[in-house]
Automatic annotation (TrEMBL):
Compositional bias of kind Low complexity: 30-44
Protein's recorded name: DNA helicase
Main location: cytoplasm
Domain of life where this protein originates: Eukaryota
Length: 692
């Protein structure tokens, strides 16, 4: 990629799946693979490997094709099973492989022992891409990319390897070639378009015209609320968005009911008979909206690969609707015909016959796609709300389709280049709803060229000022004391804690929790200053090295975390109501070794993976402790903001203030705030290693 991928976490999180482990297949042990060479580490270090990064070595070898059929979009669906001739035969269960539904994979012919290096390379190059749609004990089912893709007819054994993980495993998006190609194409298209081609809407987006003025808030038209419990800032944001002709930004700090507000906004738009497109940067963000719209019985359709959708929303997916709607019958018969033909290919050994059948399938596929397009068109037209990821909305299903309004959820995470395919040709207005992050004000000046790093939210704010923005100000998650710092630093002290949450303590949980110095305190800081809790550099252990440099860990700090978790559990707090988050992958590995066994149910995550989540108690492990005051990822306010705004009743920060404070002005203020407001404690090594 010629440009950096800002969506890729610097420190790739470990998946929370308990059964996760690196593939035990021979692929990951091949001596030719440098990452799999026997480690030169002393055996004591190798004896306790931490969770490997998820992308390392995920592959299944020795597969064969068991069945093939046609799926939505004429896609070829292949079922792969272990070759019974290998590994004792019997066509039995697959060894544990860690591959999950939604993972992007490559399927290819497996090189045999005798193949030379160049031939191996060529074979790898012929790999067909696809997405895993089902994982069973005995089979993995993959939907192959591209109309003509198939893995048949090569005879040999097949292997499957993961190219990127399903975004539904975490809340983070991983790199995907198609996404970036589409973003790039859109950027060039927009840059080449002449001004005469711009609609008035695009002119506002580019800052060539100002948005149509909206009456002052107290003069906005009252609405008939579907949910009257909305608070004033939510109601005001909705009224403002409804009154804006071109664009409205809704800035929603953590827990302020952004999704709540968006749902009401969509329902209000439907009341006015508007045709609405709703997008988010990730599948999870879109699915979340589908789930919350579903009880309102809204006719809606969710575009996107069914393998990547939450099971609860699959019934609204295009894939399912094209099978079950009235318009679907006409597509079904041709789908069956293609499946029959595909089955007949496997029965014949005659090459000429095979080619002839392939030719027929090709023709059928063309017809299938035409019929399917008609079916999809009528479904999209008949749905008042269409939901897709920003990337998905730029796909062929919505080509040339216009909507009255586009709502973009989590717009502060959506790169402008992602948003543009969605809005470029739409003569519509856009409502974007921001997420938990602080605004990076002034980053994009007026008239700046479109870039792949900026967000549409930032750009519009910089172009038109805060008149086009409304902020949600009442938050329903955090105790006042937990909210105080992020509110002052990032939300101009405008956040207000709702009555119901502002003084909630762990002792008020709906189960018995003993009153202790921890459970009665919403904000605790374990300051490890003094040099005894120094960080370690990881990266030499198998699979731990990541492209952006070595990961850091801090074993003694992990022990402080364990001590604190133990104290909360001893007081009665359930481990499943707690989370430990850290920005460093290596530290996550350490924490899992230490906490998973004694506290089953506790959630461990990278900060990125914890976005959008909440827990009653959250412990943050900051890791960095060095004489050079190097703070790495901690310098990113956005990440820290995510970490410090996840807890409801108890936040415990573990870190070395002497290292972290000098890292930036923001970090200095945070450390000072903790010193002044948190229940401050100084651990000694002897406290945390007692009894070990
Ligand atoms: N007006 C309201 N009255 C009472 N509870 C509310 C109100 N608005 C939102 N909530 C509650 O606040 C919580 C957070 O709401 P929601 O998930 O919509 O927030 P969000 O801003 O999207 O969250 P996040 O910061 O995780 O993205 C939910 O439990 C929701 O029911």
């Amino acid at each position: 990629m010629p440009f950096p991928n800002p969506n890729l976490p610097y420190d790739i999180p470990n998946p929370p799946h308990p059964r996760w482990h690196q593939s035990t297949s021979r692929a990951s042990r091949r001596p030719s693979s440098p990452s799999s060479r026997p480690s030169s580490q002393p055996s004591s270090r190798r004896a306790r490997p931490s969770c490997p990064p998820p992308r390392a070595g995920l592959a299944i070898l020795n597969l064969q094709l068991a069945a093939q059929r046609t799926g939505l979009g004429g896609k070829t669906i292949v079922e792969l099973v272990p070759d019974p001739a290998v590994g004792g035969g019997g066509g039995g269960d697959m060894a544990e492989h860690g591959i999950r539904v939604g993972d992007v994979v490559g399927v290819g012919e497996q090189a045999r022992g005798g193949e030379r290096k160049r031939e191996r390379g060529e074979m790898e190059g012929r790999r067909v891409g696809g997405v895993v749609v089902r994982v069973g004990a005995r089979a993995v089912v993959v939907a192959l990319d591209g109309e003509e893709a198939d893995v048949e007819g090569r005879g040999g054994r097949l292997w499957l390897c993961v190219l990127s993980l399903s975004p539904t495993r975490f809340c983070v998006k991983l790199a995907n070639d198609v996404t970036y190609k589409r973003m790039n194409q859109t950027m060039s298209k927009l840059q080449k378009a002449s001004e005469a081609e711009y609609t008035p809407f695009i002119r506002v987006l580019f800052g060539l015209s100002s948005p149509t003025p909206v009456p002052p808030d107290n003069e906005l038209r009252e609405l008939d609320w579907i949910d009257p419990s909305l608070n004033d800032s939510q109601k005001n944001a909705i009224k403002f968005a409804m009154a804006s002709s071109e664009v409205a930004l809704i800035h929603g700090p953590p827990g302020t009911g952004k999704t709540h507000t968006l749902i009401e906004l969509i329902l209000q738009m439907l009341k006015q008979n508007l045709h609405v497109l709703v997008c988010g940067p990730s599948n999870i963000s879109v699915d979340n909206i589908v789930e919350r719209l579903a009880p309102h019985k809204v006719p809606m359709i969710r575009l996107g690969h069914p393998a990547r959708l939450l099971p609860s929303v699959v019934n609204h997916s295009l894939d399912v609707l094209t099978r079950t709607s009235d318009a679907a019958a006409i597509v079904q018969d041709i789908r069956k015909e293609m499946d029959d033909k595909q089955a007949s290919i496997r029965k014949t050994r005659n090459g000429r016959e095979k080619r002839a059948i392939y030719g027929e399938i090709k023709e059928l596929r063309k017809e299938y796609r035409e019929r399917e397009r008609g079916c999809v068109d009528s479904l999209v037209k008949g749905s008042k709300v269409v939901l897709a990821t920003l990337h998905g909305a730029g796909g062929f299903h919505l080509k040339n389709r216009q909507f009255d309004v586009v709502n973009i959820d989590e717009a502060s995470q959506a790169l402008e280049a992602q948003s543009s395919p969605t809005i470029k040709s739409l003569n519509s207005k856009t409502k974007t709803k921001e997420t938990n992050e602080e605004r990076d004000k002034g980053r994009n000046g007026t008239g700046e060229k479109l870039t792949l790093e900026s967000t549409l939210f930032d750009r519009l704010l910089a172009l038109h000022g805060s008149d086009i923005k409304r902020m949600l100000t009442t938050q329903y998650r955090m105790h006042e004391k937990i909210m105080a710092f992020p509110s002052a630093e990032l939300y101009e002290s405008k956040l207000v804690a709702a009555e119901a949450v502002k003084a909630r303590l762990l002792t008020d949980l709906p189960y018995p929790v003993e009153e202790t110095e921890d459970t009665l305190e919403p904000l605790v800081s374990w300051d490890t200053q003094g040099g005894d809790f120094a960080e370690q550099i990881e990266g030499d252990e198998a699979g731990e090295k990541i492209s952006s440099g070595e990961s850091k860990s801090n074993e003694a700090e992990a022990a402080v975390v364990r001590m604190h978790v133990q104290k909360l559990v001893d007081a009665g707090v359930k481990p499943e109501d707690m989370a430990v988050v850290t920005p460093y992958n290596a530290q996550l590995g350490k924490l899992s070794q230490l906490l998973k066994g004694p506290f089953p149910g506790i959630e461990l995550g990278s900060i990125d993976g914890f976005q959008g989540r909440e827990k009653e108690a959250v412990v943050v492990s900051l890791v960095r402790s060095n004489a050079e005051h190097e703070v790495g990822f901690l310098g990113e306010k956005r990440r820290l903001n995510v970490a410090m705004t996840r807890p409801k009743r108890h936040l415990c920060v573990v870190g070395d203030s002497e290292t972290i404070g000098p890292g930036s002005a923001f970090l200095k203020r945070w450390m000072d705030f903790l010193e002044a407001n948190a229940d401050l404690r100084y651990p000694a090594l002897s406290d945390v290693y007692v009894g070990d």
